[in-house]
């Protein structure tokens, strides 16, 4: 069965004769096609080639040692369950050294004299021993030839399984990897063939191979990404925009009835948005404003403006909690005559059907919702404006889906994170930016305290004091990375502990596993003041607005990034009352302590982002991780090297698009080497996705 040809899009099932029972596991891990597997790259590489240890320069180095067991192993236990196992090894280069394993007592039985081994670990030249990290018994000689790739664990699939599947693909004689980059560009940058680049990544001889493979694949990835953005942009500007006939008196009345006066920054930004909406060109604007600067009211007014012009509006948000809150608060700001629907993943099928009908008939003015809004079946009678809140939580895919919903709708993106200009260009194309650079008046700076877990009683005392004044508090439960189950348990434990210590408090618990109704109920009881203290996981992070809450306690604050801490702190200090943010943590390392200090001293989101960069060093020069921009399989935009590739790929994709893709026939006229088979498929696929409704 190995005579057949397999392509990147061939299903793995077909390519590798995978047993049906393993199929599900693969698919759950996101592996459907040959592409999915071949484009899963090693985390790192290990050099397993034998080397002469006497030639090492450093006193300590990570090395691979090929050898055989000499002598009898010794095993010692200490401190209860801990153990140290040691044995003498004779290396393939004829040296003698001691190999040491910690906490792997069971290996003793296998260390019989004469057993061939490949050890990988930290070698100490003075002590003449190696602390073993990885042990391979009777190793395969092929490891001697090049670097060994170490793969990640993907959705419960072990690195070993991944590697063996990849080996089967890479050894498959029928594997054909179609080119995707036009030949002229490949020549211009001296890129490898796509197949060669993939082999360099998976089976390099040395790190130089990896660098060459990466360069080719990073260009490929960024070129295709930019090509898609060019198509998105063309789709957006293809039709004439809508010029909305906004009724300014109606809007003015709503503004007059707001419970506050707009800040001058809000007035300016609103004017920019309204003037865009009235112009016949489509609006594509990013509204940037720090947490608490009052973006929601701007969104509400813009949405109302489109309703006065007789069209519909949609507000897309990343979480259900936020969607429900926006419905509540926008409901209060706008006249009752405006009908507003809520649509999330938890909306029942019946309600959903009814709402879809209303939207398509125009019986609903506004809809606020999560990803569920993007469903292709959802259509509007006359959509005029889409607002995307916390836009960094959404990608190109979502922007495309929303554009497909109407004619040339106006789009307003909102974000609290400042994004450098070069990157906005690369990720959004041309986009206008409005900045809310002023907080509403009367706000007092949130007082930020840092305390250690053993002083939790004083934290509770502060909350007690605030509850006494009629205020409320949030407590963010500790976060243990990557385990939703453990996080949940932590939140439950913490809630119980607090109820025991403070039986007279009314405590609510909000977490991601609750159903929509339950979330709404808990949130509502907090908003209405029934609950004094809300214990929650980071589901609360973005956007939540309960002005009466004045205390934000963050347990294990050192586990969170500064951007998240800033977002969390932004949940309080939303009224004229003095508010507090208490960071509970006892970090041992200097950088972590420094970061908490930054939080204590700074309150401006932009400055915090800057300081965070300084502390993290040059690893993430442009703050990409902060900004929540997309991550890629190969490219790492936190590095200068790949940002340069992004820049050229951006230019190349744009010019390729305007010369060969903007007119459908021009592409067909290109010589075959300029439209390689995989590029043709990519373009066809994207063209089908970017439908232009009439
Ligand atoms: P964000 O920009 O973080 O989304 P919100 O829109 O949630 O901020 O606004 C934060 C709080 O400030 C809300 O309670 C809102 O009602 C209030 N707010 C907004 N604008 C003003 C203003 N001009 N004056 C006073 N309070 C305001
Ligand atoms: Mg907000």
From TrEMBL:
Coiled coil location: none
Domain of life: Bacteria
EC number: 5.6.2.4
InterPro entries with a match to the protein in the record: ATP-dep_DNA_helicase_RecG, DEAD/DEAH_box_helicase_dom, Helicase_ATP-bd, Helicase_C-like, NA-bd_OB-fold, P-loop_NTPase, RecG/Mfd, RecG_dom3_C
SMART domains registered for this protein in UniProt: DEXDc (SM00487), HELICc (SM00490)
Pfam families cross-referenced by the UniProt entry: DEAD, Helicase_C, RecG_dom3_C, RecG_wedge
Catalytic activity: ATP + H2O = ADP + phosphate + H(+); Couples ATP hydrolysis with the unwinding of duplex DNA by translocating in the 3'-5' direction
Keyword terms, alphabetized: ATP-binding, DNA damage, DNA recombination, DNA repair, DNA-binding, Helicase, Hydrolase, Isomerase, Nucleotide-binding
GO terms, molecular function: 3'-5' DNA helicase activity; ATP binding; ATP hydrolysis activity; DNA binding
Domain (Helicase C-terminal) ranges: 455-614
Listed GO biological process terms: DNA recombination; DNA repair
Helicase ATP-binding domain ranges (all copies): 276-436
TM regions (residue ranges): none
Job description of the protein: Plays a critical role in recombination and DNA repair. Helps process Holliday junction intermediates to mature products by catalyzing branch migration. Has replication fork regression activity, unwinds stalled or blocked replication forks to make a HJ that can be resolved. Has a DNA unwinding activity characteristic of a DNA helicase with 3'-5' polarity.
Family: Belongs to the helicase family. RecG subfamily.
PANTHER family given in the database record: ATP-DEPENDENT DNA HELICASE HOMOLOG RECG, CHLOROPLASTIC
Protein's name in the database: ATP-dependent DNA helicase RecG
Species of provenance: Candidatus Carbonibacillus altaicus
